[in-house]
Amino acid sequence: MSSTKYTLDRIEDGYAVFLKYPEEEEQLIILQSAMNKPVQVGDRVLIEEINDIYHIEILLEETEQQKTEVKSLMERLRNKNK
User: Fold this and answer.
1) CA 49 to chain centre
2) What is the spatial distance between Cα 19 and Cα 49, in angstroms, rounded to a whole number?
3) Which DSSP symbol is given to 33?
């Protein structure tokens, strides 16, 4: 099975809600205890399911780039309202 790229949108009641990248329209909801490692909201990851365990690879460079872009957008929106 191949890995698929997702962004962690939120964590609710012990479940991680991922949005499939890049469209972010399709959701993947995974019980946190079924993941091989913890993740944080906003992390861009590759996910592969093997024997009912979701193997997560955090894409650090893409995650940091996304956080920088979001921060920049927020600053522009704040400055626009002044």
Assistant:
1) 16
2) 16
3) G
pLDDT at 2: 67
Q: pLDDT, tens digit, for every residue of 5-52?
A: 999 999 999 999 999 998 889 999 999 999 999 999 999 999 998 888
Answer yes or no: are the C-beta atoms of 4 and 56 closer than 8 Å.
no
Token pair in block for residue 13:
């009641």
Give the span between the Cα atoms of 13 and 76, in whole angstroms: 33
Nearest to 42 by CA among 72, 73, 64: 64
Q: Which residue segments constitute the domains of the chain, with CATH numbers given?
A: 4-80 (2.40.50)
Structure tokens at 57: 């690879």
Q: Is 8 in contact with 45 (CB distance < 8 Å)? A: yes
- Asked whether the bond before 22 is cis by omega within 30 degrees of 0, the reply is yes
